[in-house]
């Protein structure tokens, strides 16, 4: 049989990935290859409380890199947080500045937005004149002025301290606005971090709830990017490599948080999930998760975990062959019948969610029943466009009502 001609595609990943336990000590060398001084953006745990801080300071000092903390993230970044961070940046020349993000997806996304906005501020304005709120909103998809990132962001080095979001390898920063009730992406291929230092040791101190939610986010990203309507060969190869490792490692890290081998497998799977989603697309679990985050403040990973089983069930009629391939990548002895193997994947994921202790129903995360219409209508966005089954708000509402 002749090979079908491949569709054209782009593939963008961080040019430098340093993966492995203990590799955080190389951060000074990596930053020195990109600039002369470092602006640190981090989560409390990543930057202030964990042992990472000491190692980062020491490595930067040894490389002769002066550094300062310019922003601390608390929770998923908002327009207000990004604007406040931009307004508070040290004055002066940005030449040679490297932004270093240390934390989970929230900290990395905050750093990505700062790095991109600094070089894309409106021309002919002095610091005091800038309305940072408007500048940020204007660069988000689907709201404000829909401005593109035109200039290279400051170089960014991402150091994840959780294993799940894969933000160290993606081209977007997710920013929410509780005031205007949206959660949207700032996106550009130029926003992919210039380097990712993925050191699984930094995830060992991650608490159980965060480990569970971020781990299931990673698994959702691998599955949704594999079955996504925009099928791309390289993301699919990454998902096939990452998913079996993640589904075996997640129960292990939940039972024993110090299991470094399993932590390493999760960090690796998370990195691959980021590379996969950034170069393919996602599906209904991520589409609904964004709206659920706006309505109930549900953390991204928890919302994805809640939606993943129903997303598999809804898409099985058209994507059972792909779900079966995924199940066979985990269990080579799985059925050769696609429908049976797809059903086995669903059961496997349901068990994993149960073991992780994540919410199973929309009422569990505080959604009010009368808000189902709003949730269905606001679950659009780029993620839902990649879902194998086309869903309009009416059919989505029915699906959501069934898991209320
Ligand atoms: Zn995700």
Radius of gyration: 21 Å
CATH architecture of the largest domain: Up-down Bundle
Tell me, rounded to a whole number, the average pLDDT.
93
How many β strands by DSSP? 8
What's the N-to-C terminus distance? 47 Å
By CATH, the superfamily of the largest domain comes out as Dehydroquinate synthase-like - alpha domain
Proportion of helical residues: 40-55%
Largest sheet: 6 strands, parallel
Structural class: alpha/beta
* Low-pLDDT windows of residues: none
Q: Oligomerization state of this entry?
A: single chain
What would the CATH topology of the largest domain be? Answer: Dehydroquinate synthase-like, alpha domain
The set of bound ligands, ions and cofactors reads:
zinc ion
Note the beta-strand portion: 5-15%
Secondary-structure element order, as H and E?
Answer: EHEHHEHEHHEEEEHHHHHHHHH
- Strands of the biggest beta sheet: in what spatial order? 1-8-5-4-2-3
CATH class of the largest domain: Mainly Alpha
Shape annotation: globular
């Amino acid at each position: 049989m002749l090979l079908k001609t491949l569709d054209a595609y782009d593939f963008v990943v961080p040019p430098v990935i340093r993966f492995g336990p203990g590799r955080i000590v190389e951060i000074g060398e990596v930053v020195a290859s990109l600039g002369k001084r470092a602006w640190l953006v981090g989560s409390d745990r990543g930057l202030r409380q964990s042992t990472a801080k000491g190692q980062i300071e020491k490595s930067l000092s040894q490389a002769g890199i002066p550094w300062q903390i310019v922003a601390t993230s608390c929770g998923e970044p908002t327009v207000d947080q990004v604007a406040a961070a931009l307004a508070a940046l040290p004055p002066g020349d940005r030449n040679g500045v490297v932004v270093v993000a240390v934390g989970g997806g929230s900290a990395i996304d905050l750093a990505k937005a700062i790095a991109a906005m600094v070089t894309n501020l409106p021309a002919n304005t002095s610091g005091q004149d800038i309305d940072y709120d408007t500048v940020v909103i204007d660069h988000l998809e689907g709201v404000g002025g829909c401005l593109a990132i035109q200039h290279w962001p400051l170089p960014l080095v991402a150091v994840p301290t959780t294993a799940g979001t894969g933000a160290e390898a993606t081209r977007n920063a997710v920013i929410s606005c509780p005031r205007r009730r949206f959660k949207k992406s700032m996106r550009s291929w130029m926003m992919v971090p210039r380097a990712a230092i993925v050191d699984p040791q930094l995830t060992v101190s991650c608490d159980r709830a965060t480990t569970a939610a971020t781990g299931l986010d990673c698994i959702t990203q691998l599955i949704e990017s594999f079955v996504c309507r925009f099928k791309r060969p390289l993301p699919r190869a990454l998902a096939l490599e990452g998913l079996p490792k993640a589904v075996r490692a997640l129960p292990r890290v939940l039972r024993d948080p110090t299991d470094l081998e399993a932590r390493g497998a999760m960090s690796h799977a998370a990195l691959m999930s980021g590379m996969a989603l950034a170069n393919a697309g996602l599906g209904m679990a991520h589409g609904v998760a964004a709206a659920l985050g706006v309505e109930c403040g549900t953390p991204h990973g928890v919302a994805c975990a809640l939606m993943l089983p129903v997303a598999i069930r809804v898409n099985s009629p058209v994507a059972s062959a792909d779900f079966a391939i995924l199940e066979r990548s985990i269990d080579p002895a799985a059925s050769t019948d696609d429908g049976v193997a797809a059903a086995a994947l669903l059961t496997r994921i349901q068990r994993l969610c149960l073991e992780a202790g994540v919410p199973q129903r929309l009422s569990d995360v505080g959604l009010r029943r009368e808000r189902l219409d709003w949730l269905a209508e606001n679950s659009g966005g780029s993620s839902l466009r990649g879902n194998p089954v086309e869903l309009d708000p009416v059919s989505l509402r029915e699906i959501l009502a069934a898991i209320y």
